[in-house]
Amino acid sequence: MPLRDPLFQRVAIIGLGLIGGSLASAIRKNSLALEVVGTDLRKEDLVLGQSLGVIDTIADSTAEAVRGADLVVLAVPVQATRKVLEEIRPHLAADVLLTDVGSTKSGFVKDVEAVFGEFSTRIIPGHPIAGSERSGIRAANPDMFTHHKVILTPPDNVSAPHLKKLRALWEACGATVLTMSVAYHDEVLAATSHLPHLIAFSLVDTLAGEDENMDIFRYAAGGFRDFTRIAASDPVMWHDIFLSNRDAVLRVIDHFTRDLDQLRTAIADQDGATLLRVFSRAKAAREHFSKMLSGQAYVTNNSENQVTFRLQPGGSVTGDIRVPGDKSMSHRSIMLGALAEGITEVKGFLEGEDSLATLQAFRDMGVTIEGPDNGFVRIHGVGMHGLQPPRGPIYLGNSGTGMRLFTGLLAAQPFESELTGDASLSVRPMNRVAEPLRSMGAVIDTAEGGRPPLKIRGSKDKKLVGIHYDMPVASAQVKSCLLLAGLYAEGTTSITEPAPTRDHTERMLAGFGYKVERDGPTASVTGGGKLTANAIDVPADISSAAFFLVAASIAPDSDLILRHVGMNPTRVGVINILQQMGANIEIMDEREIGGEPVADLRVRSAELKGIEIPEVQVPLAIDEFPALFIAATCATGRTVLTGAEELRVKESDRIQVMADGLAALGVKTEVTEDGIIIEGGQAIKSGSVHSHSDHRIAMSFAVASLRATGEIEIIDCANVATSFPGFVELAQQTGIKISAEEAKAGVEQGAD
Ligand code: S3P
C-alpha cells in the first residue's frame, strides 16, 4: 500500500543485528519509510531478514545500500565504524541524515572526524537504551524501543530539521528522546551499563573457574541468575564497547573498586554499622531506580505522573478511620533522630513524598535509617557532628518545610551542600531563612529573588553565632530553621514570633533532652548541647484529618470517627473555626503521647454558618484554609478571611487557586490581598478544576463533590502523595465517590 508522507524515502540500515534489525522492523511496522534497505556481512541474515519482513530490500554492499538513501543508520559493532564510514562516504547523498546506535559516542565522533575531516551538521550520533542478552536478527522486535529512552548527542551546529526528523522517527517507534553531550553520555553509560556488564562477565568467569563450579551452577539461586543475566550478552560487541569507552569505564571501575574494598574491610573488621549503612542506602536507591535514571533524586518527581481525580456528586461520609502521620512531626523525627546519639525508633511516620525526601537526604549524608515499614523507622543517630557531606545536591521535591529546616541545619555543618526542589518549590521564597541565617554568619547563595536552589557554604573554619530574631511573619518553618542552626551556634539564639505557630520543634527537642527556653512569644536555645535518642509516636496529621472534618460536616447523614489525631494547641485552628461555624465535632479520649496531645474526633453533619474568621486563628489553621473555603461555600451566610497573605506563598497561591477552582464550579468569591470573601449557599456545579500541583487544593475539591450537582474533574493531583498517600482509597472507604486516573511516564532499562 503506498504510504502517505512517510518521514523518509529510503532508509539504509547497515548491520542487521538485534538493534539494527529491531529498528528496521519498527520503521516498517510504523510506516516511517517508503523502503527499508538492509546490508550485513552475514548474507544468510539478510535473506532471513527479508523473509521475516524486517527489511524490504537486500543490498549486497554498503555502497549499494546508502545510494539514494535519505537516512543511513550504522548498526555495526563500534570497532567496525571507521571502516564502514570509509566505504559509504563517496556514495552518500548530499542531504543524507547519518546516525548510529552504538553504545559509546566519543569513539563514533572520532571515527567520523577521521573519515569526513570534520563533523557534519547532518550527522547525529544516537544510542537507544534498549536491548536484550539475546543477539542477532532472529531476536529483532519492532516494539523493542517502546517506553525506552533514546539518547541523541547532536553537534552544537546540528541541522535543526534533521534533528527534528530523527527525533520524530524514534518517537514514532515508541521511544522517549533525550539529548546530551557526547562526554556526558559516555560517563553515564560507563556507570549504568558498562560497569554492570563487566561485573557480570567477571563474576561468572570467576565462578566458572572454581573447582566446585558444577555445584555452584547447579545450585545457583534466582539471585545469581538475575544478577548475571547480562553475562550472556554478545562478547564481541562488549569487547568493542570497553575498548572504545576506555577512559570513562576506567574511572568508574576505580570508584567501584574503592567502594568494594571498603565493604571488604567492613566485613573483615566485623563493622556491621558500615554494612547496614551502605546496604540500606543502596536498597532505597534501588527502589527508586527509575527516578535516578531520569536524573532525579530518589523521591518521585510527581510532575512526571499525571493524576486526575474524577468525582461523582453527593454521598455521605461515615466510618472509623485513621489518617496518615503528621508531616511536620515526621520531618522533625528524622532530623533530630539523625543528630541524636543512639537509636531512635519512630512509629506512625508519614510515608509521603515530602518526609521521604527528608529521610533520603539523611541517608545521603551517611545516616543509617531502617524502614520505613508500615510507618516504623529506626534511625541510627550519628550525633551532632556526625553528618557526612552529601555526594550531590539534595533534592527535596515539593517540600518547603524540608528546604527551610535543612537550610538552618546545613548552614552550621563543616561542609558545602546544595538544596534543590521541584517546579513549585523552586519559586518559593527562601530569603526568609537565608537572611537571618546570614546574620548568624552563614554563607548561602540563592537563585534570583531568593529562590532555590540554595548553595550553602558551610565550613569548618567558621562557626555560627547566636542572634535574636524578631520574625516578620508568623512561620514555624523559619523559627525551626533558626532553632536548628542555634543548636550549633556560639551563645544563645532566640526567636520572637508575631503570633503563635506550631511548636513541634521545641517539643521534640525537649524530648531529645535539649533544653529550649520559652518566654512568652520567644523561644531560645543555646548552642553546643547534644541530643539523646528517643522513641517517637507520630499522631495522625490534623491537616489531613481536616479534609474529613469538612467532608463529614457538609455531607448529609454523615458520622465519622477519626482516630489518634494530633491536637497540639498550635494546630487546632481548623477545629476552632469549624466549631465557630456550627460544626458538630466531639473531642474524645484526650491524652498525651510523647509530649504531644492526641484525641479521637467524632464529626457529624451540621448546618454551617458563615463567620468572620478571627485573625489569631490564621497561623493555627494555616494549611487548612483550602478545605475551610469549601466549608464556607456550603455554609449559610458570608465568610470573611483576612490576615492570611501567607497563603499566597504556599505550594500554590492558595487564595487565587481556590478562587479560580471555585469559579470553575460556578461559585463566585471576592479575592482580597490578604484573604477572601465567600458568600455561602451557592450551588457547586459540575466542572474541571486545576490543582496547580498543590496537594491540599486537590483534596479540598474532592471534598466539595459531596455537595456538588454534577461531576467534578480535578487535574494535576499527583502531589497528593506528598502528604497523604492512600487518600483516594480512604476517601472511597468513607463514602466519597472518587476515582483516580494515572498516566505514568515510566523509565525502563534494557540489557544494553
Ligand atoms: C510547617 C509550617 C507551616 C506549614 C507547613 C508545615 C512546619 O509553614 O504551612 O505545611 O512543619 O513547620 P510556615 O512556617 O511557612 O507557615
UniProtKB/TrEMBL annotation:
<feature type="binding site">
    <location>
        <position position="650"/>
    </location>
    <ligand>
        <name>3-phosphoshikimate</name>
    </ligand>
</feature>
<dbReference type="InterPro" id="IPR046826">
    <property type="entry name" value="PDH_N"/>
</dbReference>
<feature type="binding site">
    <location>
        <position position="332"/>
    </location>
    <ligand>
        <name>3-phosphoshikimate</name>
    </ligand>
</feature>
<keyword id="KW-0560">Oxidoreductase</keyword>
<dbReference type="Pfam" id="PF00275">
    <property type="entry name" value="EPSP_synthase"/>
</dbReference>
<feature type="binding site">
    <location>
        <position position="428"/>
    </location>
    <ligand>
        <name>phosphoenolpyruvate</name>
    </ligand>
</feature>
<keyword id="KW-0808">Transferase</keyword>
<dbReference type="InterPro" id="IPR001986">
    <property type="entry name" value="Enolpyruvate_Tfrase_dom"/>
</dbReference>
<feature type="binding site">
    <location>
        <position position="327"/>
    </location>
    <ligand>
        <name>3-phosphoshikimate</name>
    </ligand>
</feature>
<comment type="pathway">
    <text>Metabolic intermediate biosynthesis; chorismate biosynthesis; chorismate from D-erythrose 4-phosphate and phosphoenolpyruvate: step 6/7.</text>
</comment>
<dbReference type="GO" id="GO:0008977">
    <property type="term" value="F:prephenate dehydrogenase (NAD+) activity"/>
</dbReference>
<dbReference type="Pfam" id="PF20463">
    <property type="entry name" value="PDH_C"/>
</dbReference>
<dbReference type="InterPro" id="IPR046825">
    <property type="entry name" value="PDH_C"/>
</dbReference>
<feature type="binding site">
    <location>
        <position position="477"/>
    </location>
    <ligand>
        <name>3-phosphoshikimate</name>
    </ligand>
</feature>
<feature type="binding site">
    <location>
        <position position="654"/>
    </location>
    <ligand>
        <name>phosphoenolpyruvate</name>
    </ligand>
</feature>
<comment type="function">
    <text>Catalyzes the transfer of the enolpyruvyl moiety of phosphoenolpyruvate (PEP) to the 5-hydroxyl of shikimate-3-phosphate (S3P) to produce enolpyruvyl shikimate-3-phosphate and inorganic phosphate.</text>
</comment>
<feature type="binding site">
    <location>
        <position position="477"/>
    </location>
    <ligand>
        <name>phosphoenolpyruvate</name>
    </ligand>
</feature>
<feature type="binding site">
    <location>
        <position position="327"/>
    </location>
    <ligand>
        <name>phosphoenolpyruvate</name>
    </ligand>
</feature>
<comment type="similarity">
    <text>Belongs to the EPSP synthase family.</text>
</comment>
<feature type="binding site">
    <location>
        <position position="475"/>
    </location>
    <ligand>
        <name>3-phosphoshikimate</name>
    </ligand>
</feature>
<feature type="binding site">
    <location>
        <position position="623"/>
    </location>
    <ligand>
        <name>3-phosphoshikimate</name>
    </ligand>
</feature>
<feature type="binding site">
    <location>
        <position position="400"/>
    </location>
    <ligand>
        <name>phosphoenolpyruvate</name>
    </ligand>
</feature>
<keyword id="KW-0028">Amino-acid biosynthesis</keyword>
<dbReference type="InterPro" id="IPR006264">
    <property type="entry name" value="EPSP_synthase"/>
</dbReference>
<keyword id="KW-0963">Cytoplasm</keyword>
<dbReference type="GO" id="GO:0003866">
    <property type="term" value="F:3-phosphoshikimate 1-carboxyvinyltransferase activity"/>
</dbReference>
<feature type="domain" description="Prephenate/arogenate dehydrogenase">
    <location>
        <begin position="9"/>
        <end position="297"/>
    </location>
</feature>
<feature type="binding site">
    <location>
        <position position="328"/>
    </location>
    <ligand>
        <name>3-phosphoshikimate</name>
    </ligand>
</feature>
<feature type="binding site">
    <location>
        <position position="696"/>
    </location>
    <ligand>
        <name>phosphoenolpyruvate</name>
    </ligand>
</feature>
<dbReference type="Pfam" id="PF02153">
    <property type="entry name" value="PDH_N"/>
</dbReference>
<dbReference type="InterPro" id="IPR003099">
    <property type="entry name" value="Prephen_DH"/>
</dbReference>
<feature type="active site" description="Proton acceptor">
    <location>
        <position position="623"/>
    </location>
</feature>
<protein>
    <recommendedName>
        <fullName>3-phosphoshikimate 1-carboxyvinyltransferase</fullName>
        <ecNumber>2.5.1.19</ecNumber>
    </recommendedName>
</protein>
<dbReference type="InterPro" id="IPR023193">
    <property type="entry name" value="EPSP_synthase_CS"/>
</dbReference>
<comment type="subunit">
    <text>Monomer.</text>
</comment>
<keyword id="KW-0057">Aromatic amino acid biosynthesis</keyword>
